[in-house]
Amino acid sequence: MYNVWACGSNGNCQLGLEDDKDRDQLEKVNFRTPQGFSRALDEKPVKIACGGNHTLILMHDGSVYGCGSNESGQISSSQLQAGVFEKLEMPYIIKDVVATWESSVFVTQQDQIYVCGKGLSGELGLGKSCTQAGLTKLDLPETGRIVKIESSLHNVVVELENGTLIGFGNNKKGQLLEGGAKLVWTPTKLPTKARQFSLARDFAVYLNDSLKIQGKDQFQIASTAQQLDVKEVQQIRTMWSSVHLITNTALMSIGNNSHGQHFPGFDSSTTISSPTYAIGSEHGLVASDSKVFAWGWGEHGNCGRHRGSLSGVTFDYLNQIYSEPQPVVEVFAGCATSWVITRSTC
């Protein structure tokens, strides 16, 4: 059996806890199943994708659950708002999913892309005349096996097996196409190829032999990155305004650190083996075994409660938010929301 725990921003019931109150402690989310409401699932959740006020959970069997705001049709439900996670009526088996602020993007097992919701900056990819849609198939300029899809607030990039990158959505800072139109309304081949990439709010990061920042570099990330040896970097993750480079042994942070967004590192009380990281809008999570710690901007309770006499919304240390006996399977972080998937035997 699996449980999903959540805390943080909840103004549109996006935590699946049946109300719209923010949480500063993890709670088990609720699912509507054919047997009734349940806080436990037989099927394993494999990914959680978060929009501004909606959440999607992809299951191992290719089904998807959604909750939160559906005002723009972003969870493809008959309700304006879902207070618990409900299984979406998808006519396809889904292998990946991402979310922008008010839209959802689904990748099928047949490597087709479907979108729904609202996209005033082109993030639906359906053209300038279509800024809101129910579940609609998206045509790509090149076909092939889709190996990766990333999103930010208002744009999406898809990677094909041959390395081709295809993007659409907000390009006001040149984060998709340097010198291109401010809004990329339909899926467009990008001139860049990368072994790793990630999308922030106003810039994109591409990693090959060096780290390339494309778009608005307000926090001098590119100049800092030039001083780093990136050969050992295995993953790139971005918050809205910072970059986090994951190697076998460490996580390195560069960019905005106004609210403790940089990874603070481990000390004698927080050292864990084989850590797993999740990076959200302006906060992060690190997990191993039966422990989860949060750091960064915790304005909505997404970093838990402060230790002792500490206060404020900045968590410039690793704050433990989970210590239950059930082992942690995976962690995810969204727009000021934190998610922990655990496994139990009963």
Automatic annotation (TrEMBL):
InterPro entries (alphabetical): Ran_GTPase-activating, RCC1/BLIP-II, Reg_chr_condens
GO molecular function: guanyl-nucleotide exchange factor activity
RCC repeats: 2-61
PROSITE patterns associated with the record: RCC1_3 (PS50012)
A GO cellular component entry from the record: cytoplasm
Pfam families the UniProt entry points to: RCC1_2
Protein name per the record: Uncharacterized protein
Organism expressing this protein natively: Ogataea philodendri
Lineage: Eukaryota, Fungi, Dikarya, Ascomycota, Saccharomycotina
